[in-house]
Design brief:
This protein has 312 residues and is α+β, with helices and mostly antiparallel strands. It has ten helices and twelve strands. The protein has two domains: 105 residues, Phosphorylase Kinase, domain 1 (2-Layer Sandwich); 183 residues, Aminoglycoside phosphotransferase (APH), C-terminal lobe (Aminoglycoside 3'-phosphotransferase, Chain: A, domain 2, Alpha-Beta Complex).
Length: 312
């Protein structure tokens, strides 16, 4: 990840003032320095104060309701001792800083590193995801996420109005192959929705915390598992069967996939792969154009279109 350095002597006084106000609101101490840690729709900063190191995350106003629902899920996860990164509560018992159109949350900057997929890492990712999928789901609200059935079709309609037919044609072809996959037909659990290496923290070989719960929802466990397959079992060299078997072994040690779930893993992986392509085109290519736009060609570059799980 490329960091954008912002010192306390920066010419951007308005930015420093906002960060200092948020730090004061959550009693994080006096701001000493900050650095941007990426983000497109939402923006994240690592900040250092005289009390320690923290993370400040700004949200777009349109994301406020989703953030409030995310907090309910996080409180439920904390009640069940799940290893997540939790937001700091202010003195007035609220978690969200609000001033005008500025909405922000904070958390402690946790120790650890973002892992590179290995067999040992994947086993722990699998078992942690399965643990999440075994937690009770009562009392949790419905929450929109890119895992829900309606999301892909709606996002595709948006992209059709903004992207050239030639650019969209390969995605439309792949969409036709998997459009009948319906996640509601499979066991529903708490789903993280975006478990990728940079959303995990490891200390040694132990997973210490799962980060970034923006897409958390009640969704199909097999679909959430498929997101992990995409992000921990594929590389520029293609699909790695050993990494997949390690992920599956770790998952199955905690929760067994049903026969019906196992049968649709390949379809779920391709479904979430095309969902990722369409999301990139909708959010970064259309809604938030940026010179650092992530490539939406990963689906074909990694060979997912030709991939099959049948011989695994």
């Amino acid at each position: 990840m490329n960091y954008i350095e912002v010192s306390s002597q920066s010419e951007d006084k308005a930015l420093q003032k906002k960060l200092a106000a948020i730090a004061h609101y959550f009693e994080l101490g006096s701001l000493l320095s900050s650095r941007r840690a990426g983000g497109y729709a939402n923006t994240t900063y690592f900040v250092t104060t005289d009390k320690g190191e923290y993370v400040i995350k700004w949200f777009l106003p349109a994301k406020l309701e989703k953030l409030q629902q995310e907090l309910l899920y996080l409180q439920w996860l904390k009640l069940h001792d799940f290893p997540a990164a939790y937001y700091i509560q202010a003195a007035n018992d609220v978690f969200i800083y609000q001033k005008g159109n500025t909405f922000a949350v904070t958390m402690k900057k946790l120790p650890g590193y973002h892992p590179h997929p290995t067999k040992e890492v994947n086993k722990r990712i699998g078992s942690t995801l399965a643990l999440l999928h075994t937690l009770p789901i009562q009392k949790l609200p419905e929450k929109k996420s890119w895992l829900e059935k309606a999301y892909l079709a709606e996002a595709l309609e948006l992209v059709k109005s903004r992207v050239s037919p030639d650019e969209l044609r390969p995605a439309l072809y792949e969409y036709e192959q998997i459009r009948h996959f319906d996640p509601i037909h499979y066991p529903q659990t708490i789903a993280h929705g975006d478990l990728v290496p940079h959303n995990c923290l490891f200390e040694g070989l132990e997973l210490s915390a799962v980060l970034d719960w923006e897409e958390v929802c009640i969704g199909a466990a097999v679909q959430d598992f498929a997101v992990c397959v995409l992000n921990f079992c594929f590389s520029q060299q293609g699909f790695d069967r050993d990494l997949y078997h390690a992920l599956y072994e770790g998952y199955a040690s905690i929760r067994h996939l049903s026969k019906e779930e196992h049968y649709v893993i390949e379809q779920a992986v391709k479904y979430m792969g095309i969902t990722g392509v369409v999301t990139f085109l909708a959010q970064f290519g259309a809604a938030y154009p940026d010179e650092h736009t992530p490539s939406h060609q990963f689906y074909w570059r990694l060979g997912i279109d030709q991939w099959t799980l049948l011989d695994n």
